[in-house]
Write a structure and sequence with these properties.
By secondary structure, the protein is of the alpha/beta class. About 40% of the residues lie in helices and about 20% in strands. The strands form two sheets. Strands 1, 2, 3, 4, 5 and 6 form a six-stranded mixed β-sheet that branches. It has a two-stranded antiparallel sheet with strand order 7-8. Helix 2 links the parallel strand 1 and strand 2. Helix 2 crosses helix 6. It is globular and about 50 Å long. The two termini are about 25 Å apart.
Length: about 190
């Protein structure tokens, strides 16, 4: 498995580059995310997979020392037109630490990705940094795992817009993997 990962990393960086994949505990990129019901967490994992395992993945509320990472990717679910509370808290405490390392931001929301540019701009603004890349992804809404408060709020919303209140899963692993490969290519270009 490790030989395949190194081979993919070398191929992704141009084939002839001499590049050693860092050990598991020495990854140079970290993806920090805030997720309420899991679709942002899953998206972060798929992005890391697209990066050939080069990135560590950690929840914002569990993020420890980031000093050993060269680059940081931030991801957040969107709830009520806001970033996830854990990401807001993370940025309030660690904005200065990550702003010069910020490689990319991504959001996961119920809005079609091509219409979510405002969320990406809001996220970059909260980071007080311009990420090299930004991307929006679709998520899921599973009624059976919603908190009672979220269930009631969404039920009311869907009724107000005359749409059925039904579970959905619009996640797209292929698009997440593609973004991961794109991020890996940007890292390789900078080396």
């Amino acid at each position: 498995m490790k030989i395949i990962s190194i081979g993919l990393l070398i191929a992704a960086c141009g084939g002839l580059s001499v590049f050693a994949a860092p050990a598991e505990e020495q990854k140079s990129v970290v993806i920090v995310y805030g997720s309420r019901y899991g679709s942002t967490a899953r998206t972060a994992e798929w992005i890391a997979e697209g990066m050939a395992g080069k990135a560590a993945v950690v929840a914002a509320k569990e993020a420890g020392d980031l000093g050993g990472y060269e680059k940081v990717i931030l991801g957040s679910g969107i709830y009520g037109d806001m970033l996830h509370a854990d990401m807001i808290a993370f940025l309030e405490k660690r904005r200065e630490e990550v702003k010069d390392k910020l490689l990319a931001v991504f959001v996961v929301c119920g809005m079609p990705p091509d219409q979510a540019g405002g969320y990406l701009e809001m996220f970059a603004g909260k980071c007080r940094a311009k990420p090299l890349l930004a991307r929006a992804f679709s998520g899921w809404m599973k009624k059976e795992i919603l908190s009672p408060e979220d269930f009631q709020g969404l039920e009311k919303y869907y009724k107000s817009v005359n749409h059925p209140f039904a579970s959905y899963d619009h996640t797209d692993k292929a698009k997440c993997l593609e973004f991961g490969r794109e991020l890996l290519a940007k890292i390789c270009e900078a080396k």
